[in-house]
Amino acid sequence: MEATCNNADGGRVINLINNRDTAVSMDLALTGTQAGETLTTYQTDETHALEIVGQSPLTGPQTTVDLAPRSVTTLVIEADDAASCQAHVEVVADWGSGWLGKATIEAGDEPVVGWDLTWNWPGTQRVQRLWNAEWTQTGNAMTASDVGWNARIAAGDSRDVFGFTATGPAAPLEFTC
């Protein structure tokens, strides 16, 4: 097996060659990658057919790649162009058994026209009430979406988009949207 790395259009390309007659599973540490980047996996076989065999957002630098027998597998790592804004949850008040938080979105170079925020709480946090957004919580997974009037944020601006009360330990967060 051999591996080579090249730059291509701001992304990274990694070619993995399996010259064995059996499939191989490789654990890779993709240094320099960030959560939110997209990993697309292409594979050719002995007939030289090329196909996409996987595409998923990276959640960290570790990934596992399965190499077919006698194949070339190409990994393409690209930044998520859709992440044109940053968001954060700020703790406004904390009274021990619960807390008050607010979420702010900061637009990047492009305006935000409609937003959906998704994050995972780090612990036992549970939203009790949330205003100015449609929301769902399943376990630690949260999703909040605009309600129309608060969907647009001009390029370079920031806006407090919703507030909420929650139980569990207060938890400020930062993430892309």
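The record above closes out task 2.4. Task 2.5 opens with a second protein, given below.
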Amino acid sequence: MFEVDHPDTQQWKRQQAAAAGIGVPPSLAFVPVDFEGDALAGALDAAGLDRAAGPRFSCGSGSRRT
């Protein structure tokens, strides 16, 4: 599973999970992507995406509250 998000938002999510005592499963890869300048396909490839495995996508959208 790949968790794709902006690097700053992703770091915030990881900090929140750690503070709550939620561990990262070995099947999860964090893929930081600046959507204004980075290529999503390239970032996923660099993170180890196996295109032959028939990936599935789930897209969640939300806002971070500080």
